[in-house]
Design brief:
eight-stranded mixed β-sheet, five-stranded mixed β-sheet, about 25% strand, alpha/beta, 10 helices, about 425 residues
């Protein structure tokens, strides 16, 4: 389907903010913090209902949050990556309120979680989660306060001493490292790397986009870990050196799983997988020739979502895992899930990053990337679970096939078309 041709659905567009300015000198700064909460908070790990909200038993390796601030003297933008399952809709507005500066709004901050399944439970951060149900995650006000305060301080700390930078991007295909877990032919094998250096050539940051669920660890793994993305980022920071900050963001990973080729514990498998990705990232990184005066633009829209409804077969899959009956799922949808969502897009030279506010399947992500490529973008990427998690996002055909992913898609069969249209109408102005 040519999704760009069906953009004649303006009824769902509510608000659009666009900052389109020609190439200019960009200044930047990057910072990272360890954001592992104290175990005394007794927080839960996200991703598996079978954990029943039991608190983390220890810390295997720390989770981190990282920010890249970009500024050309007229406009500014913050990209935040974090080793976390995802963000509920309330987190980003609360970060902006805590920063309390006109300089920062919802339009110019982009949150990109890694989707690791051994980090903080997403529903534990949702202040609309009043249900106190162990399978879906119990709201923890102290944990929300910790995350909001940490991320707002991170932005404030990075938003100073910005230095001129040069930026470049390259990609390569990686085969046999991810697969479609719904047994479909659609697999996104693009590894896309963006290198950001200071004017003197010193490394500042490296952005890595690779599409795969960080689910090597299972529901019985109860120690905090950043998963394979954490190992990958730490390897990069060690190998590249000079204080570089490695920032990973996922893609349209809704049906994409890793292919782990090595034996050992889950943590050892995650380490080996992260190292294998890092080896390929370094190859690309060393081949990039960053440039100054590149295009720096962003766009933002709010769109209406379709009516909320559970999948007809929800009770057989998602309902069973999360302990929800037909009455509870409707109450949950009405209380917790939003009626609108936001779409963010960022252009950095040859890179165009467009965010998906949930778990987009690869078929839809590849269609979007194809449209952007045909419009002249050399390196289009999907930022998975951007800003907020609304649910899985499937095509109508995949929704009708059912399965786990469809059962955790909460806006009916037209959600995929709605989100794809929103992503394209947000991204396309940046292709000019």
């Amino acid at each position: 389907m040519n999704y760009f041709k069906i953009l004649i659905v303006p009824f769902f567009l509510v608000l659009a903010t666009s900052h389109l300015i020609s190439a200019a000198t960009i200044k930047a700064q990057a910072k990272e913090i360890i954001i592992t909460p104290p175990l005394e908070i007794k927080y839960t790990l996200g991703g598996y209902g079978a954990r029943m909200s039991k608190p983390a038993e220890g810390i295997h390796d720390n989770i981190r949050a990282k920010v890249l601030i970009l500024d050309d003297g007229i406009k500014h933008y913050a990209v935040i990556t974090m080793d976390i399952l995802g963000f509920p809709p309330n987190v980003k507005p609360q970060i902006i309120e805590r920063i309390n500066q006109k300089r920062w709004t919802e339009e110019n901050i982009l949150l990109l979680p890694s989707h690791t399944h051994t980090s903080l439970e997403m529903f534990a951060l949702n202040d609309k989660n009043i249900f106190n149900m162990a399978p879906i995650g119990i709201f923890q006000p102290k944990l929300l306060e910790y995350v909001v305060e940490s991320l707002s301080l991170l932005i404030k700390q990075a938003d100073k001493d910005l230095q001129p930078v040069k930026i470049g991007t390259k990609k390569m295909k990686l085969n046999e490292l991810n697969r479609n877990r719904r047994d479909n032919p659609y697999v996104d094998t693009d590894l896309t790397v963006t290198r950001i250096d200071l004017g003197n050539g010193q490394p500042l940051a490296v952005l890595v986009n690779w599409t795969a669920h960080p689910t090597i660890m299972g529901d019985k793994d109860m120690f905090v870990s950043a998963g394979w993305p954490g190992y990958m980022q730490r390897e990069l920071e060690s190998w590249i050196g000079n204080g570089v900050i490695a920032m990973y963001y996922n893609g349209a990973e809704g049906d994409q799983s890793v292919i782990s080729k090595r034996a050992g514990s889950h943590y050892e498998q995650a380490e080996n997988y992260g190292r294998e990705i890092a080896i390929n990232v370094v190859k690309l990184y060393n081949a990039i020739q960053p440039k100054v005066n590149i295009k720096f633009e962003y766009n933002y829209q709010i769109i209406n979502l379709p009516e909320k409804e559970p999948h007809p077969l929800f009770m057989e899959t998602g309902g069973k895992e999360y302990g929800l009956d037909e009455e509870k799922i409707y109450i949950l949808l009405n209380q917790v899930f939003p009626t609108k969502t936001s779409i963010s897009a960022l252009r950095l030279g040859d890179l165009l990053l467009v965010g998906a506010p949930g778990e987009l399947i690869a078929e839809l992500g590849l269609n979007i990337k194809k449209e952007l490529t045909q419009s002249g973008i050399q390196y289009p990427v999907i930022g998975g679970l951007a800003n907020q998690w609304i649910s899985y996002i499937l095509s109508e055909n995949e929704y009708n096939k059912s399965g786990y992913e469809a059962s955790v898609s909460f806006y009916g069969k037209n959600l995929g078309d709605t989100i794809v249209n929103g992503m394209l109408t947000t991204a396309m102005p940046l292709t000019k």
